[in-house]
Amino acid sequence: MSIAQNPLSIKVEVPREDAVLLTVEGDLDMDTATELQHHLANQLHHGRRHFLLDIAGVPFMDSSGMNIVLRAYQEVREIPGGVYVISPTPAVRRIMDLTGVSITVPIVESVEEALAVADSGGPAAPEPPDED
């Protein structure tokens, strides 16, 4: 029997009627990604169009977490709406860059920036990472 080293915690806030802020802490992986998926589906069911994912407290994300983020992005594009990843750690940001998730899903630094991007209709295409 394994004990979760970094259990997932998800705090849900509604900064305004059409948007939800999900503050995620802990590893977002195969064992925990379905919990995030349930929260996203519940908020979509309640009419939210903009999903703000604050993952500053996520030290590790694997492909299961990436898939949840991408699926949410694909679902809300039809509404129309958006998914905005807020403040990923450097390790998670690197994985998002390497897998191309950051090309599809906007990465922002704050809730205010995410809401501003949502209000502007979203970016046409997120900026590619700087090549050093």
Automatic annotation (TrEMBL):
Organism superkingdom: Bacteria
PROSITE patterns with a match to the protein in the record: STAS
Residue span(s) of domain STAS: 17-118
InterPro entries listed in its UniProt record: Anti-sigma_ant, STAS_dom, STAS_dom_sf
Alphabetized NCBIfam families for the sequence: ant_ant_sig
Similarity comment: family membership: Belongs to the anti-sigma-factor antagonist family.
UniProt xrefs under PANTHER family: ANTI-SIGMA FACTOR ANTAGONIST TM_1081-RELATED, ANTI-SIGMA FACTOR ANTAGONIST TM_1081-RELATED-RELATED
Protein name: Anti-sigma factor antagonist
